[in-house]
Structure formats: structure tokens, C-alpha cells
Write a structure and sequence with these properties.
The protein is mainly α and 121 residues long. 79% of the residues lie in helices and 0% in strands.
Length: 121
């Protein structure tokens, strides 16, 4: 049970990381120093998508699931709702490139607005 809870915690951390990659720039508007963490995080998130790499959290989660005796993602709130968001079925190279481009464009927009606002104040 402990390994299953740890695997679920990794999935939750993975989701929070993804949300931070997408939305952390908005938080940096309020807390400027957060940009020092967010920019490399957003670059890493885009690189994962562009290069087709596997995030290090994925093998960790899978290892914990194996240690828990699980063979798949059945049951539970986290398994049912969060895993399909993080690990969508039918994820293609084109979809990954689209996701990576979206991450870069969104963050470029956020930081462009941020720096323009900062320059005017």
C-alpha cells in the first residue's frame, strides 16, 4: 500500500509540474523571482515534448507501481482522472510537437507581457 501511495504521489507531482510549466509564468507576474525557476522548467517541459523524451517521473512511478504489485492503472481517483491527462492514449510525435509548441508560445506570450508591464512601471 505504501508503494501505491508513493506512485500516486508521483503522478500528482507530475501533474503539478505540468501545470507549473504551463501556468508558472502567470505566477511570476506576482512573484518575480519565481521566473528564475519557471523559465528553465518551461524549457525542460518543451524539450521533453520536442525530443520525445520520457520525464524521469514516469519510470519512477512505474517502478513504484511494480513494487506495489500493480499491473496497470486501474481504480482510484488519481488513476481514473489524472493519469489520462498525463499519459494520453494515442500520443503521436505530431501531438508532442504541438504540445511543445503550445508550451513555448504560451510562455513567450506570458513573459512578453510581463516584461512590457515591468518596463512601463
Amino acid at each position: 500500500m505504501l508503494f501505491r501511495l508513493a506512485a500516486d504521489a508521483v503522478v500528482l507531482a507530475h501533474l503539478v509540474f505540468i501545470i507549473f510549466v504551463l501556468c508558472g509564468g502567470f505566477l511570476a507576474w506576482r512573484w518575480r523571482k519565481l521566473a528564475l525557476v519557471h523559465i528553465p522548467t518551461a524549457v525542460w517541459g518543451a524539450l521533453i515534448e520536442f525530443a520525445g523524451w520520457i520525464c524521469p517521473l514516469t519510470p519512477l512511478e512505474n517502478k513504484l507501481r511494480v513494487l506495489a504489485g500493480d499491473v496497470g492503472y486501474g481504480g482510484g481517483f488519481i488513476d481514473h482522472y489524472l493519469i489520462p491527462i498525463i499519459y494520453p492514449t494515442g500520443l503521436t510525435v505530431g501531438a508532442q510537437l504541438t504540445i511543445g509548441t503550445f508550451v513555448l508560445l504560451l510562455n513567450a506570450f506570458v513573459y512578453t507581457v510581463y516584461f512590457r508591464r515591468r518596463r512601463h512601471t
